[in-house]
Design a protein that fits this description.
- By secondary structure, the protein is α+β, with helices and mostly antiparallel strands.
- Helices cover 31% and strands 19% of the residues.
- A hairpin with a 3-residue loop joins strand 15 and strand 16.
């Protein structure tokens, strides 16, 4: 499979992907530049979200003959979009809701640069504001980006930390946050909830609501259900581990136009076959090696398979594919849990919101409402509709809803809370609305880290990708999905003697030697007091 370009280590550029001089490079493994001719390996990628599209891209760039099957009609997974016609006759794009593209998402941004080298299809929002129902507000525009000034600056500038609050805090309990490493953070904190950890630190209630609970709910989970290890990792990625800060970018147009249509076209030019609206029924291991993949279209042989599915999809496909993995692996997959349902309500209003309203606002204490996005402030399609009609386009999110939540009353509650947050919307009529209820995000429960799959599996040639996957790297959310997609592809490329792809992450430990020392001393003290045992 070695082509005329010979062997090389692809993409070993040491140009840093952001402003953080301590960003960590994981060099690509060396190998042949491309697989050439009819002997090129064949790979099936099951799932067309971020993880699957990343894996498909990374494989196709090395000459692997890729087929991608996605059960939905659209690519993008949780960032998919689809056309819908409004009551006024306008065709617009609906999606599953707002996503923030943080500057720490090095590998996701590397994927997007394949079709947008300057990331010109993204635009930055000037702040990440948070508001509580009692009137307290926080934001990150003025917070320094370089740790530890980032955390210190947030405390100094925040209305949520008063002198009495600071005196009540137990800084010793927060020491694990000073030196977060993967997987050590899971060994230390996976058996307690994010809520209980914050209780032990005695974070001020207002700060907990505005900062930590807003972030923890970005995992679509109540803090009482979320592993403290995931929250600590998040704290490291955004506060104490990275100098990129907490400001973020958003796509200038809906997800399909800005992200996935250009990437799908590039995959087509690379020879990949993209099959949307095509569920995979089963994957079987062939006695002579490789796999047979049975989709709704056909059955075909492949040398390798990437399972890039949400937890429910992975559980279901593995249950239907009896020969995959071993008994222990299959049992762990069967125990994967899905986060509670969430709602995205998008409203097309016949009046504008105030011009000074932020493009995105995190909320706390407003009932089911977790955040408000004014899409017409930054998304081109929504802005054009608003300019033509004199109205506005607003999106409301409600995370971690009860399984028996009334799907009629929750949207009404969100609208009522929007009227509280942005009173001018009380006078606005709703031209049309779309309400998307979903329940397909991974839950990272207390003590659940060991059940999460790794990229490798007990079956050679079978790999897993997605935001539920254990990568061994300090990544989360969309960045974990993209990173796992590259890791899955690199695992297969290495198997075939092909060059891998480089990866970047935030630093994999605390940035300060003094803080690392303090975290180690604090951890030793707690272990001694606990008697060294654990259940």
């Amino acid at each position: 499979m070695t082509g005329p370009a010979g062997r090389f280590a692809s993409g070993i550029s040491r140009t840093r992907p952001g402003r953080d001089r301590r960003a960590r490079l994981l060099p690509a493994s060396p190998g042949a530049a491309r697989a050439e001719g009819s002997g090129a390996p064949r790979a099936m990628v099951v799932g067309g979200g971020i993880a699957g599209l990343t894996a498909a891209t990374a494989l196709a760039e090395r000459g692997v003959r890729v087929t991608l099957c996605e059960r939905e009609e659209q690519l993008g997974g949780r960032l998919a979009g689809w056309p819908t016609r409004l009551a006024d006759g306008t065709t617009v794009t609906m999606s599953r809701g707002f996503h923030a593209f943080f500057r720490q998402y090095y590998n996701l941004r590397a994927l997007l640069r394949r079709t947008d080298p300057g990331l010109d299809r993204l635009t930055g929002l000037p702040d990440y504001p948070l508001v509580h129902s009692d009137g307290r507000r926080d934001g990150f525009r003025r917070v320094p980006r370089t740790p530890p000034l980032s955390a210190l600056g947030f405390v100094a500038l925040s209305d949520s930390f008063g002198p009495r609050d600071l005196l009540r805090m137990r800084p010793g309990a927060a020491l694990p946050l000073l030196d977060v490493r993967v997987p050590a953070v899971y060994d230390r904190l996976d058996r307690i909830s994010a809520y209980d950890f914050l209780e032990s630190v005695r974070f001020p209630p207002a700060a907990r609501h505005l900062a930590f609970e807003v972030f923890s709910r970005s995992f679509f989970a109540d803090p009482r259900q979320l592993s403290a290890a995931e929250m600590a990792l998040m704290f490291h990625i955004y506060f104490l581990g990275s100098a990129e800060g907490l400001l973020f970018d958003v796509p200038r147009e809906p997800f399909p136009q800005a992200l996935w249509d250009p990437l799908a076209a590039r995959l087509g030019r690379l020879g990949a076959r993209l099959r949307t609206g095509t569920p995979v029924r089963a994957v079987s291991v062939r006695p002579e090696g490789g796999f047979t993949v049975a989709s709704e279209v056909d059955e075909e042989p492949y040398d390798a398979v990437v399972l890039a599915l949400d937890p429910a999809g992975l559980r279901s496909l593995v249950a239907r594919s009896g020969g995959l993995g071993d008994a222990r692996w299959r049992e762990r997959v069967a125990r994967l849990r899905t986060a509670p349902p969430f709602l995205v309500s998008r409203l097309w209003l016949d009046a504008p919101v105030r011009a000074d309203r932020p493009g995105f606002l995190g909320t706390s204490g407003h009932g089911a409402l977790d955040n408000v996005s004014v899409l017409s402030a930054w998304e081109g399609e929504a802005a054009r509709w608003a300019a033509r009609t004199g109205g506005s386009v607003v999106e409301l999110h409600a995370y971690a809803q009860a399984g028996d939540a009334d799907r009629t009353t929750v949207p009404k509650e969100l609208l009522g809370e929007l009227h509280r947050v942005y009173p001018e919307t009380r006078q606005a009529g709703v031209v049309d609305a779309r309400h998307e209820w979903r329940s397909d995000c991974p839950l990272f429960p207390v003590g659940g880290h060991g059940d999460r799959p790794t990229v490798d599996t007990p079956t050679p040639g079978l790999v897993v990708a997605g935001d539920a996957v254990r990568t061994g790297l300090p990544v989360a959310l969309m960045e974990r999905a993209a990173t796992s997609g590259f890791l899955a592809a690199n695992t297969l490329l290495r198997r075939w003697g092909l060059a891998g792809h480089p990866l970047w992450t935030v630093p994999d430990r605390g940035r300060s030697a003094l803080l690392r020392w303090a975290a180690a001393r604090g951890g030793d003290g707690r272990r001694q007091r606990a008697g060294g045992g654990g259940g």
